Amino acid sequence: MTACIVLLGGSYDPVHNGHVALGEHCAALLRADLLRVIPAGAPWQKGSTHANAAQRADMVRLAFAALPLPVTVDTQEIERGAPTYTIDTLRAVRAEVGPQAALVFVIGADQLQRFDSWREWRQLFDYAHFCVAARPGFALDGPAIPAQVAEQFSRRLGTLQQIRNTPHGLTYLAPDFAVDISATEIRAALQRGETANAPIPAPVLDYIEQHHLYKS
């Protein structure tokens, strides 16, 4: 059977329970062999991060350590030391794992609104499948999705089995899963000293407190 690797990128500033649940959910859907979590280095659409790259990578390792599946933290975007583009990351991962493995890149439905601004966005499908985590009732033909993005994602829709057993080029909507946790709101709560109900894995919260992150 084809090896299947789920790729979960993000700023992780900080990593929270929603990220962990999303990775676990998509890996389970696809019966993935590996979940590969990729902290962004210098995310070109977001500006600077609050925690530094090494701290964000440390927090990701702590957050995903308890999952009952193989997880690796891929720091290539951090090591690149320049603005990070998904196309570069996918090319590097594909070169590493070979042409046969199924690569599945997970994005949130909100990212489709800007997907046509991603560098070489049409070429992304030459390297990976795309799994879209969406709220119930989400549709690709909604007014917020650029028409050419909707057309590509609709035309490429595949089944979980097809995605699991082919290398790249298909899309899938996970219509019952969306992460409604805001990292911005978490940072604001931490700044106010409200840690009791923060939706963050306990080891990550300990790390944040030890390193005095998100205090100002």
Number of strands: 8
Amount of helix: 25-40%
| Rg (C-alpha, Å) | 17 Å
Q: Which blocks of ≥5 consecutive residues have pLDDT under 50?
A: none
**Looking at the structure, what is the overall shape?**
globular
How much of the sequence lies in strands comes to 15-25%
The SSE string, one letter per element, is EHEEHEHEHEEHHEHH
Largest sheet entry: 6 strands, parallel
Termini distance? 50 Å
The spatial strand order of the largest sheet comes to 4-2-1-6-7-8
The mean pLDDT is 91
Structural class: alpha/beta
Characterization of this structure:
It is a single chain. This protein has 216 residues and is α/β, with parallel strands linked by helices. The protein is 34% helix and 17% strand. It contains eight helices and eight strands, in the order βαββαβαβαββααβαα. It has helices at residues 17-29, 53-64, 76-80, 86-97, 147-155, 160-164, 183-191, 202-210; strands at residues 4-10, 34-39, 42-43, 71-73, 83-84, 102-108, 129-133, 171-174. It has a six-stranded parallel sheet with strand order 4-2-1-6-7-8. It has a two-stranded parallel sheet with strand order 3-5. Strand 1, helix 1 and strand 2 form a beta-alpha-beta unit. The chain starts with a strand and ends in a 6-residue tail after the last helix. The model has no long low-confidence stretch (mean pLDDT 91).
